[in-house]
Every structure is written in structure tokens, then in C-alpha cells.
């Protein structure tokens, strides 16, 4: 499924862009013991999963590298799994809105995302023709009302 592959790649890109390091700076052991419901940033993608990792391997701690890497890989798998679950829940909500009579339109970005993920030549033209132009066509009358 293209969506799952894209979401997995997106998580990898976020990690490559410094998400782990940023959350390591943000991590507060006292706050992680707080049992109140997660709100704000504490609910963001990757925060709960890496918080569990940081509880075991505090950013400044020295630990067995093999166990630390294994725990990191498990946290990344959890982030990817939870991100896919979130996308599935969002799709379900959209389908319920459609079932309740909302006039929803579908724009299929599959080929554009597939092209982007595989670095296929011309993916931006596909995006423009299959996603951007139909989206503008759908939204323009709404904005002109």
C-alpha cells in the first residue's frame, strides 16, 4: 500500500531531520512520570514512543549499545505502526462523514506519491495534473460563494 510506504518514509525523513535529537532535548523525566492525559506536544507523532525509549535510555546515559539500538529500532517501528493506525482512523472518520451526507470529493494522489517516493521523473507534473488542478477545481467554487 502506497500510503503505508509513504508514511514509513515520512517517519524516516523526520528522524533524519533531527526529530530524535529535538525530542531528546525536550525530554523531561519528571514530566514522563505524569499520568494525566497527554495533551499538546506530548500527543504528537513520535513523542510517546520516544518518551518510552528515553525512560529506558536517558539521552545522557551510557548503556549497552546493542540494547540501545534495539530499543531505538523498536521505538521507530512503533512510531510507524501508530502513524499508519492514525491514518486509518482518519480515513474511517472521512468515510463516516461521507455516510452522514457530507459532500466530500476524493482526489487520488497515489501515483504522485509513488513517483515522489521512487524519485520517478515527472512526479511533480503528475501531482499538478492529478492533485493540484482537481483540488483547485473543487475548492474554487466554495471560496467564491
Number of helices: 7
Coarse morphology: globular
Rg, alpha carbons: 20 Å
Largest sheet: number of strands, sense, barrel closure: none
Structure overview:
Helix content is 70%, strand content 0%. It is mainly α and 145 residues long. The two termini are 37 Å apart. The model has no long low-confidence stretch (mean pLDDT 89).
State the main characteristics.
mainly alpha; 7 helices; 0% strand; globular
Furnish the topology, listing elements before pairings.
Layout: H1 2-16, H2 19-26, H3 29-32, H4 47-56, H5 65-99, H6 110-117, H7 123-144
Helix pairs in contact: 1-5, 1-6, 4-5, 6-7
Give a brief rundown of this model.
The chain is mostly helical.
